[in-house]
Specification:
The protein has four helices and seven strands. By secondary structure, the chain is α/β, with parallel strands linked by helices. It has a single domain (3-118), classed as SpoIIaa-like domains (Rossmann fold). A five-stranded mixed beta sheet has the order 1-2-4-6-7, sandwiched between helices. Helix 1 (24-41) packs parallel to helix 2. It is globular and about 35 Å long.
Length: 120
């Protein structure tokens, strides 16, 4: 599965590793689990590790847009960690789809991304 949930920190920080090419079916698993965590914890702080991420299939891109609209206000901070120029551009691309504060971190600064998410 291209979407893996990693450990949580105090319930409000969710680390997600995204790899390969996302398919529509990936959202069948991802969306309900995210919604469960929002119900339990309120607004989330999310770290997306983009190691090996290669984009979306057409149906998955539509699912991603629907997810973003539905959860527009459910993410407080969003840290994107990657190592490619286009991944850095995703931080700008995502801004209209969320109320979250978004920051991009190079892979070498992954620990700084986690620290930023954990800040009060």
């Amino acid at each position: 599965m291209p979407i893996k949930f990693e450990g949580e920190s105090e319930g409000k920080v969710l680390a997600i590793q995204v790899s390969g090419k996302l398919a529509k079916a990936d959202y069948v698993y991802f969306a309900p689990e995210f919604e469960r965590l929002v119900r339990l914890n309120g607004k989330m702080r999310v770290l997306f590790d983009l190691a090996g991420f290669h984009g979306w299939e057409a149906g998955a891109l539509w699912e991603d847009i629907k997810f973003d609209v539905k959860h527009f206000a459910d993410i407080e901070r969003l840290a994107l960690v990657g190592d490619k120029k286009w991944e850095h551009g995703m931080a700008t691309f995502c801004k209209p789809f969320t109320k979250a504060t978004i920051r991009y971190f190079d892979r070498a600064d992954a620990a700084k991304a986690r620290t930023w998410l954990d800040e009060a």
